[in-house]
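User:
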Amino acid sequence: MTRAVRVPVGDDGRPLGRDKQLVALLGAYQDTVMRSRALDPVTTELVRLRCARQHDCRICQSLRLVDARDDGATDDVTDQIDHYETSGLSERHKVALRLVDAVIWRPSDMTDELVNEAHEHFTDAELSELLLDITKWSTQKIHVTLGTDGTDRVPLDEHGIALLAFDESGAARVRHV
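Assistant: Predicted structure:
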């Protein structure tokens, strides 16, 4: 899908006139969130992809987390995200995706029942990371809104996918599958 770029961009495809300090602070926040390791990689990937699909972020939808794939987040698993409630995903994963939907779309769905389910399936540290992951992956809405979420700078394979990993500092590393 193509989406028009809605702002002037430089040769690097990034919006011109960005506040460098604000961009650095947002980057530092994102890197800090990604350094957390309380949540398992498969849950992280399901949450990331649910956010990507909800926001319609082209670049995020084209990426797959290396460690999640290594732990079993195959295409067969991630293909269940859009219909998770009736899928074969575990209840733990369904609860995580319900949290994504509640945070992004329907805060009124953050019922006592959902909170109790979340505490049944996740530790406090995992819940903290899960909620921070949702906010981190939601910062991509900025790029979607500006139309700068294209995949032209990402080395995609023949299926339109690239692998994503995070180093110890939390910085992203993208590579061809």
